[in-house]
Amino acid sequence: MKKLKIDLAERSYEILIGRNLLGRTGEFLRDLVKGNSAVVVTHPGIRRLYGDGVTVSLQKAGFRTAYAEVAEGEASKSLEVAGRLFDRLVEFGCDRQSVLVALGGGVVGDLTGFVAATFMRGVPFVQVPTTLLAQVDSSVGGKTAVNHPRGKNLIGAFYQPRAVIVDVDTLKTLPFDEFRAGMAEVVKYGVIADRALFDFIDDNASAILALDPACLERIVETSCAIKAGVVEKDERESRYRMVLNFGHTIGHAVEALTGYSGMKHGEAVAVGMVYAAELSKAAGYCSEDVCRRLRALIRKLGLPDKLPDLGPAAIVEAMYLDKKATDRNIRFVLVKDIGEVEITDGVPEPVLRKVLEN
Ligand code: NAD
Ligand code: GLY
């Protein structure tokens, strides 16, 4: 098992990465929390696969346990579902020392984190991510949220977990297209901060897509280390944390225009990264070689590299509506070289439109 520390003063915690870790959840939690009740928030399908392993280990460690089940899908990130979770916690007799265990992907993690941040003004929670996206991205860094009908993640808090327990064995049951979509975020880390990671993915793409455990541990560990480093420098995203949004500005616009159902988040990020690289080249930041390498890797992983037919004007308007756009300035993360990016406060609209048209 690998241990990474994310250093955030009194909100510091460890990210544990390895195999066969779910059955040790109770052991890890015992040292971290004082309370004796634990509520495992998960989907029914994940409960069937992994629930017993987690709850038995919690019970062995002396916790009284209960499940709080939520339906699969983005719709569960709502105030209504959060409200039902509060009811469940009250019903189970939770107090300020009770711990919530988020067992699932980003939906369960974001929702559980939001409920943990607000129930009794904050109770401890741990992330036990079971999708690649959650293992390399959403479980680390303390962004928690539910959606508002007018926009994603509009209601939330920065609230750090007490630990992140990443068992890469859980990826074996993850639908392959979910796994592949998560790879877009791993490629992102290579582009923003680590050329060696980018090269590793390129050299080992087949083994990664075949879920080779050693490769999985390597990519998850490196990704978490990069994310932890960024969050340590700028926990509340005053600016630097935005490097994590490489490829997301265009990606979010595509997701919004396709009603969050046309493409998976990771697929939209993959396309978004290809176009962000083209934009970087057009704005004089990087060479054609950087664009070519990124596009080739995205294709090698079987991820999309072309925008769906939405029209450049609609994409630009959707980007202006994104909560990160101020006035008519769209902030972009542009790539200078593989492993090096820069945050810019605005790209001239004609340049942007030209890149989107091509
Ligand atoms: P998800 O949580 O919806 O999970 C995808 C599907 O995989 C679900 O149907 C789930 O039941 C299933 N699943 C999960 N683990 C499984 C396993 N091991 N075996 C079999 N099936 C499994 O999707 P996601 O991509 O993990 O998360 C997306 C969410 O994450 C979005 O709401 C997004 O906003 C959020 N997010 C948050 C952050 C953050 O920093 N907090 C970052 C990125 C994304
Ligand atoms: N997923 C982007 C962030 O955590 O900041």
Set out the fold topology.
Elements: E1 2-6, E2 13-18, H1 25-30, E3 37-42, H2 44-60, E4 64-69, H3 79-91, E5 99-104, H4 106-118, E6 125-129, H5 132-138, E7 143-148, E8 151-158, E9 163-167, H6 176-193, H7 195-203, H8 205-209, H9 213-233, H10 248-257, H11 265-282, H12 288-300, H13 312-321, E10 332-337, E11 340-344, H14 349-357
Parallel strand pairs: 2-9, 3-4, 3-5, 5-6, 6-9
Antiparallel strand pairs: 1-2, 7-8, 10-11
The site of nicotinamide-adenine-dinucleotide has 28 residues, from helix 2, helix 4, helix 5 and strand 8.
Polypeptide structure, described:
- The chain is α/β, with parallel strands linked by helices and 358 residues long.
- It folds into two domains: 2-173, Rossmann fold; 176-357, Up-down Bundle (Dehydroquinate synthase-like, alpha domain).
- The protein is built from 14 helices and eleven strands.
- It has a seven-stranded mixed sheet with strand order 1-2-9-6-5-3-4, with helices on both faces. The chain has a two-stranded antiparallel sheet with strand order 7-8. It has a two-stranded antiparallel sheet with strand order 10-11.
- Helix 6 (176-193) packs parallel to helix 11 (265-282).
- The termini are far apart.
- The model has no long low-confidence stretch (mean pLDDT 96).
- The structure holds nicotinamide-adenine-dinucleotide and glycine.
- Nicotinamide-adenine-dinucleotide binds next to helix 2, helix 4, helix 5 and strand 8.
